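Please predict the structure of the following assembly.
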Amino acid sequence: MKSLRIIFCIILFSVCWLPLSAQTVLEGEIRAQSGEMLQGAGVRLEKAARTTVSDANGYFRIALPSANDTLIITHMSFRETRIPVTPGMPQPLLIILERVENTLEEVEVNTGFYRVPRERVTGSFTHVDNSVLNRSVGGNILQRLEGIASGVQFTQANGTSPSDIRVRGLATIESSEEPLIVVDNFPYEGDINAINPNDIESVTVLKDAAASSIWGARAGNGVIVITTKQGHYNRRSHISFNSNVTVGDKPDLFYSQRRLPSDVVMQIEEEKYKQGGHYLPTENQSPFPEYVELLIKRDEGELSEEEFYSMETVLRNTDVREEALRYLYQQSLYQQYALNVSGGGENYSYYLSSGYDKNRSEVIGNGNSRLNLSLQNTFKPIEELELSVGGWYTQSTGTNNGLTLSNLRGGGAVYLSPYIRLADENGAPLPIIHEYRLPYAESESASGLLDWQYRPLDEIRLADHSSLANQLRLNGRLRFNTKIGFSVEASYQYVQDNGRSTSYYDPESYYVRNLVNRFTQPNGSTVIPHGGILVGGSEVPTTSHSGRGQLNYRREFGGVHELVALLGGEARQRVQEQYPGYTIYNYDSELLTGSANYNYTQNYEIRPIGRARVSPPSVARNRYTDRYLSYFANMSYGYGQRYILSASARWDGSNLFGVKTNQKGTPLWSAGFSWETSKEGFYRFELIPYLRWRVTYGSAGNINKRVSTYPTIFHAGPDWITGLQNAWISSAGNPSLRWEQVNTLNIGLDFSTKNKRFSGSADYYIKYASDLIGADYLAPSTGIITGGLASNTNLINYANLQTHGLDFQLTSVNVQGAFSWQTTVLANYVRNEITHYNTNETLELGSYFNPSTTPPVIGRSRDVVYAQPWHGLDHNSGLPVIYVGDEQSTDYRAYWDAFTPDQLLVAGVSVPPYHGSIRNDFSWRGISLSALISWKAGYVFRRGSMFPGREYETHGAVDYHMDYFKRWQQPGDEKHTNVPTGAGANTLAGSYAYRYTQALISSGDLIRLQDVSLSYTLDARRLGIPFQRIRFYAYARNLGVLWKANRDGIDPDFADAEFPAPRTVALGLQLTI
Amino acid sequence: MKKSINWSIVALLPLVCLLSCGKTFLNIKQDAKQVVPATIADYQAILDYQLVMNEASSVGLALIGSDEYYLLDGRLSTLSQPFQRNGYVWAKEVYEGAEVQDWNQAYQRILYANMALGVRDITPEPSERQAWDNVIGSALFFRALNFYHLVQLFCKPYDPVSANADLGIPLRLDYDVSTPSTRGSLEATYRQIVSDLETAINLLPHTAANKHRPSKAAACVLLGRVFLQRGSYENVEHYVSIGLESGGELVDFNEVDTAARYPFPADYGQNNPEVLFYSRPTSLTLLATGRFNADSVLLKSYSPEDLRRSAYFYDNDDGRVLFKGSYLGSAGYFSGLTSSELWLMRAECRARSGDVPAAMEDLNELLAHRYDRNQFVPLTASNAEEALDIILLERRKELFMRGTRWEDLRRLNKEPRLARTVVRVIDGQRYELPPNDPRWVWPIPDNEVDLSGLIQNAR
């Protein structure tokens, strides 16, 4: 009932004000511990039953009681405070309130267009405030939302980019699935990593139509609104310094099952070698594995048995993963420093910040750094006028010289040899098989060419790949408030992104030596000089201008009516340029000289075989201009503090599709209603003193930049062979294109029990995505062919998708007092289903098993995982049992060819329909501990295995897998294994009757201890040092899986990965002055 | 109150401004390089997109199916692409559901040609007339060339008796993707090809600015091929003679370094006067140096003084004889049109009409450029039949691996004296393709049949 009273007070406020006279008044000021002046706190005299609320300066006046009484101060975000008052006590009172973290209704949500207290919205929002954002440590703001924000699902564990995120599931089939990111009220299309999380005040996720449709045609996938920290008026300067160091473990290279020990691989290679036909010498010198070269040398008498044996023993005892861990990987180290100063006077406020992040990757030679500087000022020259200007600058650098395990793969039939060594006993770099056969590389070097061997450890040192990116963001806002409820606002933002990357190759690097050798002519003359090479990447600067004009109106009248409305327009332009990169040969890295004067048209003979040109200078020059024009209106009408009616409308146009469609634009709208039942006179349910219903419906859009209305061609410039201007057809035209549309119905309930012991919300939603772009399969005789440059011509708006789900959030205050314990539970359910689509019936069966090519099918989820049935292994052969018709068969190809998609089993979905988290926060004195446990359920993944004969493949498709040791070896084994027998050659059985069967589908369900955060805050003032507060903190992430359904040792979040995300531990310190 | 009204007007001003300038604001192109084709230069640029128009020419199945090469045991089953594995032995099931590049690429080029024909909506200024003609002529040439290639793969060999009943290929004549595809008669297909080419030769220049572009002579080679298929030898001679007026120049192999790894210049035919039109097929694993063996019987037919033996072939270390005589000047095959074909076609027609001396004169004109000039003795024939046999053998020797052998085998199979059964023996199995077997026609791609309901070829 407390919140009811607070609002009651607000209504009474203006009525009570006048009758008070100075002598009978109790005055006071209400502040937070931080010094912030608290507006809107409810002030009540218990016995006298008088109430008021504090004003914008936290100031209140209330009629002084005639007898002793108790003053009760209530505020949504603060603990209720009771103060005994006596007539004639000293005035004014200074009342400091203690903040209550994470309560449901404390917040004011920012939609990017307006800010509104949580309890006055009808839509569905997830608000993540500063204290929750700050419980984790790291350089990326989005990563901090994982497991924290209700309705936000990370499809990629530890994801850092918008594409790793789904807000309330899917709303499209072919178009972008990324939510719209808004930073400081404007869409943000830059690199999210340029944003310093230390500068972020809060994040709001707009989930339903009432929340997001104000963002119109780009809100279909949800909107994530990021708000940066601002200064405050009338607050003394605060200086805050934050620093932390995060150490990550070396990656667990032994995690991946797709390896076999050296001796097994050597045995396989020897078998293949003896069998013949596998290691055929080719003119282009496709390489053979190192061990095969040894075998050849032995057989040709170049190696004695003893020499061979000793070399073989070395290989047998080598494991490339140990080598890689020793020479290629290290512990990662992330350092973060942030300093900010904020404060303000009566008509001026400022926020100044700087940050420096430095990351040493787990790969030796890789790392990056980021420098952030920002300054924001707000001026209030006259009471009505507020002017804000801000600037943010980010500089990011990266070096990318490291090599990973996968970089050690050789070409041709080599794959990753598990026995290769990177350095000898003395640590000197050793060569590995790379692009050519070893004897060829050796003989060519001997005959006068440059050394043609590839030594990974030298390469880390001899190449320098670096990148630099700058981002500048400027914005300004002018707001004029009138006394009669209107305010006018104009805002503008400019963003400039630029970056460049360079690769320098030392004359002794493999890159240079290989190029020189390849172009060495039969007569020995060279084309490419044996000097350094500098390659500059293409530069892609982006500038965007956004401007918005907005008229706001707010009025309360008749004591029970409240009207808030806004009307505005926005224009945006984003221009992305592309400038060509360059290649400088014979580059001297000290004098910075070089040449590019070559004959780029001559078709030189190259080694080992063929002809090639010196790669010509790039001419990649492009300009992409995206323009958007929008008009929007939004209103909300509240009656009697119980009913709120909201509505919004928006019109969007863009230049994406072609002139005619552009001008049509798309109108989008939403409507919502909320009812605070607990405020009704008839409401008597004291267990739940706060109960509010919300219902909204409305539409948002989504765009697809790949399609075009008109027959269009792309000019490619003069052809490098013919010199003629040429152009390719990008579309044969599609006159009926329009924006995708997503209609969302949301029904929500907010509640809290007495004293907020439990509080929470539940939202059920259905998203109807219609007019989705879908492929309309065209016969190839139309000329629109698979892989053709105009293949997007077959994309038209006709498909529909439906997503429904439930977001549930519950906060439980378990223990309150000096020791407090609070639990927050998030539970989300979301499922999508394709409701209209023309499935391509001609697709090969194989495309049903690859997530990127799985065709959408009506009645199925977009995330469906298919499987073939599994009937176990044959008792005699150890190969999969298959049935063609009702007959058992061994003709695997016929089985595959006859297998039609409708025979496929739906094994499940790849994205968890159930997910959530449990967060426990404990605090005692200055110590607080928070642990986040996340869970996922109801989904499956396809795991790898050994496939009969695939380890015997001749070409690049070699597959190794530890299931080799579980393979069927004798009759009877089929009782305890599903792994087919080994075979001397690819039997097809593996690919056609095992790989995609149910036998290799595992449940992905898991419970993960995602992170633990511990901090100790010291009130430094008591220590007599010039700090206000010192906070020590520790944070550990990727702590491991607590429980998982599969028993194969696979972390479902990293099923295909070389290694799961290494555990990281951070230690940090925050000083506030 | 008065003041507030003022403010709301001020506030609305930017909105009014946005509304009024909105239309022009959105008219800018999203991608600077993106254009709705509107000028003659735009249409020409489409045809000059050589990556589509001149690459991956649709002769892959023709090369695979003909008798110019063979594979050794063990080198067939390891091929990963079904159409190569099955195509080599003319299996009943060829594609195993996969798409067919010869079909796809041809129709993509036909789409390009059809879109370029949009140039006909422009009324050219007199000064633009030549450029305008060239676009139309080139587009018709490209369309005809690709129709022709498709016909050789997917339709029965031409037979005047049944041509009105035999199935042709879908004749796509505009770029509207919503037009359904159907198979008309083979006669209608050939008529379309002939009419496209007869229009084209009057519009195309005598020599093109570039070998990637068609010329009048190139169109004549193609018309010659078309009429050869139809058995209309007077027409062949007529058009070939027109072609020889501007495109008869030959390269003298005595001037070529035949010992070189690649004797011909790797310059896309620019400096090879024989090349009238440049194109090449996509590279196929079974025809690559790792597996290829030149047909041994054919190899024996090159006499010692024939420079083509050393210009075209080399002996590999492992005993196989490999091809190096591509006019690409590198390891790929050449499928363009050349002047030597003009000489060979006219010789053939003259032999067929009984004019033996004229026939041998044309042939010897070519051979004089092919044989060692110190040892060359012009060939003679005592009768028309002998002359034809000599000419057809020289045709085979000359046009080795150009993609023409398949269509020659098909048409000659109609003549009992010249018909032959092609035989493959591999991995202990013998495969035969007798004359006029239905497998001389490749099946229509499975996905095309599924999506457009075309009638499948009998096999």
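Chain A touches chain B through 80 residues (CB under 8 Å). DSSP finds 13 helices and 52 strands in chain A.
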